[in-house]
RNA sequence: GGGCGCGUAGCUCAGCUGGUAGAGCACCUGGUUUACACCCAGGGGGUCGGCGGUUCGAUCCCGUCCGCGCCUACCA
């Protein structure tokens, strides 16, 4: 005796109950020891900074779809969960939190501050996990990892030490992007360009010998304090006579040379460039090439230092103002123009980035990039959509060394110790007690930590126990799929590939799925700082988790962003409700159903829906294999709504009320089979509602859907039966069209007459036609239609719909006229094609043949419509 | 400045290898039929951004222009 379902589905209590039950049953656990084929993924570890956003919801829904799908296919699945310490981001939020209490991290000191961050991590890391679980994700939570876990920290040290030993990690003075607010170096990736409306200042530099002056232009006039040359293009006839002469640096009076360098663009400004090697990336390169002095004019906090002479201790903005004023006063400022350009800002705190000279740890990338590039080129790693591969190639081919040190407190502290005696570095996995170079015990550890992405790059194997040769690693590494956002291809994906190849000898994953970016209704990128965004927890609260998951899945198209407004959720919710109600209908009709009794011969309609289900599930699986999540969702949606509910359930009602016990039982059994099949197929997308319904089906056995598998393929339908069903659908639809166009109410049953040739068809489907098209019992005769009949041509039969009311004649005339217009239009197009000799000659024969058939069909249709119309007009004319 | 992508019904978007355009929502009409008004049945609505080209035939291929977006870049 099946359970009853409530009139309405109430998601929340079901979600919490089921998730707990799944966990208790250990359904997400990856055993590592068994013999089934394996499928593994690592979660892109969310930052412990804050809360889950809609992008996470999308990405993790899609991963969960894959994980559950593979389980239903019989795979041993590991989906490895965890979180990321997110160096700068987390440090910044904790500092902001401290600032509310009027404290800075320096008030606490390093150790205490780091303790504070761990507290933050404990709190928000747990919250993130809760939110992921609310989404229903089936990660193996017993294996949850954090990038600063002891094991992962050991992996980080191991990698650092090995790379250092291989000469791939080195220290160097370099012009880095510096955030004066965070007082740390930023990678290129962490300092995005933003448009700024600046000014272009034209400044006059006088020649020392008094023979004239050169004008240069700059957007950052304060940097002239650090100028050590002015450069011109060697082939520039305006200036090359002056090369080698000296200029008097304005304000400070220093003598600087005029140098030649081809990096100068002769067409920009005056063709002469001031060179500030310590504060501009291009000038730095130029300075290196020419051996120019490098004068650093900045303190790490962004104020000017003593090298700036009278401008010392001003911050950059103040110094600029004063420099400009002083230049102007001395008549050296010869022009100011508006100048819009793009300037790097700190990705985390939006502060203007300053290029600054400093000693940093670097990682040599070119040797690592080569195999990673080849892996994608040769198709061993595939990006989906493929279009991202070009972006990947471009970046990898032009890869630069990676500045890996960060002047932060939160993160993996660099395992390098500096000797006070010999000034050498000792790099070691275990904390050393003395210098390996001179044996001195006067060593102190580097205070810098590693860029967050350093540990993220190891994630696929560090989470599985590397560098130990663990069972987990052997079983689940390399992983199969990585699903992530496209904007971190370089930050993360490329680096995982490089590190994976280098340290494990294997590519860390085969397929990389880049999910679409979610934007708001106006197409803006979601952003916490601008307050643009939708909280997935709100969405789940209002519409239910299944509805959100279904909606997100059906929006996940390859290569296109998603515009998300709350309104699109309605469709998902409606679908959940539809499924629920279909199940309610089934259960109402299964009260006396015995799951163990044998099922006799299934009816035509039963076999049809089983066949349709087979096709739908197969299509959905192909779509999933190709990461076409939207297609998978849509295929199943259409099957459930457009075929199961719209047609099969309506057809089944006939059998269910039938006095033929065998027919009734077959329909009951089919209903159970199809419903369970549909629920299973939808389970990866909508895990909660499907499991909830499945538990009340009469064949429930206490197992969850995930403990079962997809329905077996096979309940085939022969081609002839399929055509028979197509004909039925068309007949019913055509009758409904006539009814609809004449606005007949449901209560009006119309008479329908088929030609004698259709007798067998009518006998087979009489009950269905009556019920679905709301007709009187259909008859078969070849008599001409009565004056008040509407005639439609379907399946080659002239079908008469008796209207029994002269009032409808006018409507019918209008309907036929419209019909005639349509047929004539189609006829014209088809005829034109066939009249074209080159079409008949050159088009594929089967296409020509199809056109010919279409032509004759249309001609017959036209004849019938026309004849009918004439008759009606005559009849109408005769009456009035 | 380069590279990539997008522009299809009022809205949000599907349309794999070229053969007379689809869905959901919205809109209009009619509906309490053994689940579902978050529903059922029917309907209207598109020169597939513009212009050229290839082809018997182009939303789909090529060129170009217009309008968006993303990535990337050393014009100070």
Description:
The protein has 880 residues and is an alpha/beta fold. The protein contains 26 helices and 29 strands. Strands 7, 8, 9, 10, 11, 12 and 13 form a seven-stranded mixed beta sheet that branches. Strands 6-5-14-16 form a four-stranded antiparallel beta sheet. Strands 27-26-29-28 form a four-stranded mixed beta sheet, sandwiched between helices. Strand 10 and strand 11 form a beta hairpin. Helix 15 (536-543) packs across helix 16, helix 16 packs across helix 17 and helix 22 (719-741) packs across helix 23. The longest helix has 35 residues, at 845-879. The chain is elongated and about 115 Å long. 42% of the residues are buried. The mean pLDDT is 88. The protein binds one RNA strand of 76 nucleotides through strand 8, strand 12, helix 7, helix 10 and strand 25.
The count of DSSP E runs of length 2 or more, i.e. the number of strands, is 29
Structural class: alpha/beta
How confident is the prediction overall: mean pLDDT?
A: 88
Helix content: 40-55%
Strand content: 15-25%
Please give the count of helices: 26
Largest sheet: 7 strands, mixed
Q: Which overall shape is indicated by the principal axes computed on the Cα atoms? A: elongated
Which regions have little confidence, pLDDT < 50, spanning 5+ residues? none
**Cα-based radius of gyration, to the nearest Å:** 37 Å
Distance between the termini: 64 Å
Short structural description:
With 880 residues, the chain is of the alpha/beta class.
């Amino acid at each position: 005796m099946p359970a009853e379902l409530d009139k309405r589905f109430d998601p929340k209590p079901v979600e919490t109950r089921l998730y707990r039950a799944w966990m208790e049953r250990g359904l997400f656990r990856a055993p590592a020891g068994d013999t089934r084929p394996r499928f593994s993924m690592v979660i892109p570890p969310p930052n412990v900074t804050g809360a889950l956003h809609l992008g996470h919801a999308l990405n993790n829904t899609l991963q969960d779809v894959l994980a559950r799908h593979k389980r239903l296919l019989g795979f041993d699945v590991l989906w490895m969960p965890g979180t990321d310490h997110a160096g700068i981001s987390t440090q910044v939020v904790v500092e902001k939190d401290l600032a509310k209490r009027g404290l800075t991290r320096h008030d606490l000191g390093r150790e205490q501050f780091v303790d504070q961050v761990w507290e933050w991590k404990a709190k928000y890391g747990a919250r993130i996990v809760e939110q992921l679980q609310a989404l229903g994700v089936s990660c193996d939570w017993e294996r949850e990892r954090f990038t600063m876990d002891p094991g992962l920290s050991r992996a980080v040290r191991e990698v650092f030490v090995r790379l250092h030993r291989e000469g791939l990690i080195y220290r160097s003075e370099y012009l880095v992007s510096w955030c004066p607010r965070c007082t740390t170096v930023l990678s290129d990736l962490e300092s995005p360009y933003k448009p700024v409306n600046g000014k272009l200042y034209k400044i006059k530099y006088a020649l020392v010998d008094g023979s004239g002056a050169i004008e240069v232009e700059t957007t950052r006039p304060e940097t002239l304090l650090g100028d050590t040359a002015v450069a011109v293009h060697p082939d520039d006839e305006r200036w090359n006579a002056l090369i080698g002469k000296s200029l008097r640096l304005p304000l400070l009076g220093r003598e600087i040379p005029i140098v030649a360098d081809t990096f100068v663009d002769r067409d920009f400004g005056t063709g002469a460039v001031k060179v500030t090697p310590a504060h501009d990336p291009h000038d730095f390169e130029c300075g290196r090439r020419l051996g120019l002095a490098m004068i650093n004019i900045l303190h790490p906090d962004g104020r000017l230092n003593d090298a700036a002479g009278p401008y010392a201790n001003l911050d950059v903005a103040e110094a600029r103002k004063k420099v400009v004023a002083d230049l102007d006063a001395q008549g050296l400022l010869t022009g100011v123009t508006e100048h819009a350009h793009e300037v790097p800002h700190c990705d985390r705190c939006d502060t203007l980035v300053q290029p600054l000279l400093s000693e940093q740890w670097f990682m040599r990338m070119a040797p690592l990039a080569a195999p990673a590039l080849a892996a994608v080129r040769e198709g061993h790693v595939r990006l989906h959509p493929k279009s991202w591969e070009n972006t990947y190639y471009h970046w990898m081919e032009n890869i630069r060394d990676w500045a890996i040190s960060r002047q932060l407190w939160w993160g993996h502290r660099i395992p390098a110790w500096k000797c006070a005696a010999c000034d050498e570095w000792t790099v070691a996995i275990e904390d050393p007690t003395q210098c390996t170079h001179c044996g001195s015990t006067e060593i102190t550890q580097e205070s810098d930590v590693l860029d967050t992405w350093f540990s993220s790059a190891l994630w696929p194997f560090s989470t599985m126990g590397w560098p130990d040769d663990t069972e987990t690693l052997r079983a689940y590494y390399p992983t199969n799929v990585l699903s992530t956002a496209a904007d971190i291809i370089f930050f993360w994906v490329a680096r995982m590939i490089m590190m994976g190849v280098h340290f494990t000898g294997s590519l860390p994953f085969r397929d990389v799925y880049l999910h679409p970016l979610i934007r708001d209704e106006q197409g803006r990128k979601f952003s916490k700082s601008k307050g643009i965004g939708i909280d997935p927890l709100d969405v789940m609260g209002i519409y239910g988790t299944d509805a959100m998951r279904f909606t997100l899945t059906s929006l996940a198209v390859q290569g296109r962003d998603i515009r998300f407004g709350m309104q699109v959720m309605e469709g998902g919710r409606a679908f959940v409700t539809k499924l629920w109600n279909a199940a309610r209908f089934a259960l109402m009709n299964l009260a006396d159903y015995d799951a163990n009794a044998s099922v006799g011969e299934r009816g035509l309609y039963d076999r049809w829906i089983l066949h349709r289900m087979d096709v739908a599930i197969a299509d959905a699986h192909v779509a999933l294999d190709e990461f076409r999540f939207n297609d998978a969702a849509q295929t199943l949606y259409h099957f459930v709504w457009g075929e199961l509910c719209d047609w099969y359930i309506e057809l089944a009602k006939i059998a269910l009320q039938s006095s033929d016990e065998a027919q009734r039982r077959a329909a009951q059994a089919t209903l159970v089979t199809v419903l369970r099949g549909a629920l299973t197929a939808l389970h990866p997308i909508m895990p909660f509602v499907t499991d909830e319904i499945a538990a009340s089906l009469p064949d429930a056995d206490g197992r969850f859907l995930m403990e079962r598998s997809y329905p077996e393929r096979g309940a085939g339908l022969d081609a002839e039966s399929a055509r028979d069903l197509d004909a039925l659908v068309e007949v019913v639809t055509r009758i409904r069209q006539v009814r609809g166009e004449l606005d007949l109410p449901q209560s009006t049953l119309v008479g329908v007459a088929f030609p004698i040739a259709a007798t067998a068809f009518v006998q087979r489907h009489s009950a269905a036609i009556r019920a679905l098209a709301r007709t009187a019992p259909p008859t078969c005769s070849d008599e001409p239609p009565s004056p008040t009949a509407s005639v439609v041509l379907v399946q080659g039969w002239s079908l008469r719909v008796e209207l029994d009311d002269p009032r409808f004649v006018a409507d019918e005339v209008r309907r036929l006229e419209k019909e005639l217009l349509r047929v004539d239009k189609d006829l014209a197009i088809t005829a034109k094609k066939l009249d074209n000799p080159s079409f008949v000659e050159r088009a594929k024969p089967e296409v020509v043949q199809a056109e010919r058939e279409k032509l004759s069909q249309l001609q017959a249709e036209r004849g019938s419509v026309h004849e009918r119309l004439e008759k009606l007009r005559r009849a109408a004319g005769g009456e009035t």
